[in-house]
Design brief:
Layout (H helix, E strand, L loop, with lengths): L4 E6 L6 H7 L2 E3 L1 E5 L2 E5 L8 H9 L4 E3 L4 H13 L3 E6 L7 H15 L5 E5 L5 H15 L4 H11 L3 E6 L3 H6 L5 H9 L2 E7 L5 E8 L1 H15 L7 E6 L3 H13 L5 E6 L2 H7 L4 E6 L6
Helix pairs in contact: 3-4, 5-6
Length: 293
C-alpha cells in the first residue's frame, strides 16, 4: 500500500466498516439529530446503529443532518499534513451539498501553512453508495501502490462514470425533500408505486421512473446494469439498502446467478442518507457508459 497519502471521505459514502479498515480509508463521522438527540454517526455504528435509527424513523421521529464543518476538515487534513502525508478528499456531490466548497477553502488555507504538501478536494458528483463506490475504487488503487497523482486522475476521470440507481419505498421522505408533491406521495403510497432515482451528470438527484412493487424495482436496477455497465462481468459492484437486507441479498443473488458481475459488496445506507430516503430504499452502483435517463 502507498502510505505517502491519505484518502478521506465522509459518512455520506455508506461504505462497510470492513472495507474502510481493509483499505485504510479515513471516513469523517457526521452529525444527525433524531428527535431531540444528536448523534455522531460512524461507519462502525458505535454511537448509533442503522437498525436503531430506522426504528426511530419508522416510529415517527424526525431526523436532520449537518454538513462537515470547516473546523473538522481542518483537524483531519492538518493531521496528515503534520505527518508528512498528502490528502485526497473525495466529497459528496456538489449538486446536493456545499461540503466540497468548505473543504476546498480549508485546503487553501492549510497549503499556505504547509506548502510542501498536496491536498486535492474532488467533487465526486456522487451520493451514498455511489460516492462510497468511487472511494472504494480509489482505495483499491492506493492499496496496489498507485501514486497520489494516478489515483487523483482516476477519480477525476471516473466521477461521471459511476452509475447510481435507487428504488425508494417511503415516499413521504421524498416529499419532504421536494422531490414529490403531497398528492404524488399519497397516491403513490396507496398504489405501492416506487420511484426510481438516479444522480445526473451535475450530481443532482433525479426521479427517472416509477415502478409498482419491489420486484419491478429490482428488475429495473438489473436492467440498467445490463444496458449501461462497462464489462460488468469483471466488475465488483455495490448494493446499498436502508434497513432492507433481504432485498439486497435477493438482488445480489440474482446478479451473481446470471453471471452479470464478478462480485457484490452489500452495505447499509446509514442515517445521513437514510434521513432523506427513509427505510426500504435499495440501490445499485457500478461503472458504466451510455448513462442516459
Amino acid at each position: 500500500m502507498n502510505e505517502s497519502y491519505a484518502i478521506v471521505s465522509g459518512a455520506t459514502g455508506d461504505m462497510p466498516q470492513s472495507i474502510i479498515e481493509e483499505l485504510g480509508l479515513h471516513v469523517i463521522p457526521m452529525t444527525v439529530r433524531v428527535g431531540e438527540q444528536d448523534y455522531l454517526y460512524h461507519p462502525d455504528e458505535k454511537e448509533l446503529s442503522c437498525k436503531e435509527f430506522y426504528t426511530k424513523l419508522s416510529a415517527g421521529e424526525d431526523a436532520v443532518t449537518s454538513q462537515i464543518t470547516p473546523i473538522v476538515f481542518r483537524e483531519v487534513f492538518e493531521k496528515y499534513c503534520k505527518e508528512g502525508k498528502d490528502v485526497l478528499y473525495i466529497a459528496f456531490s456538489s449538486g446536493l451539498s456545499g461540503t466540497v466548497n468548505s473543504a476546498r477553502l480549508v485546503a487553501q488555507e492549510l497549503l499556505e501553512e504547509y506548502p510542501e504538501r498536496r491536498i486535492e478536494c474532488i467533487d465526486s458528483l456522487c451520493a451514498s453508495i455511489g460516492e462510497g463506490f468511487l472511494v472504494y475504487l480509489a482505495g483499491k488503487l492506493r492499496k496496489e501502490g498507485k501514486s497520489f497523482e494516478e489515483v487523483t486522475e482516476f477519480v477525476t476521470e471516473n466521477c461521471t462514470k459511476v452509475c447510481h440507481w435507487f428504488s425508494v419505498d417511503d415516499l413521504i421522505h421524498l416529499k419532504r425533500g421536494g422531490r414529490l408533491n403531497s398528492l404524488e406521495a399519497v397516491v403513490g403510497t396507496a398504489l405501492k408505486i416506487k420511484p426510481v432515482l438516479s444522480i445526473d451528470r451535475e450530481g443532482k438527484l433525479t426521479v427517472v421512473s416509477k415502478v409498482r412493487g419491489t420486484k419491478k424495482g429490482m428488475d429495473y436496477l438489473r436492467d440498467r446494469l445490463v444496458s449501461d455497465g462497462i464489462d460488468t462481468a469483471n466488475q465488483t459492484v455495490m448494493i446499498g439498502h436502508a434497513d432492507a437486507p433481504e432485498i439486497a441479498e435477493q438482488l445480489k443473488e440474482q446478479l451473481l446467478a446470471e453471471g452479470l458481475v464478478k462480485d457484490v459488496i452489500i452495505s447499509n445506507v446509514g442515517p445521513i442518507i437514510g434521513t432523506h430516503v427513509g427505510s426500504g430504499m435499495f440501490a445499485l452502483t457500478f461503472l458504466g457508459e451510455n448513462y442516459k435517463f
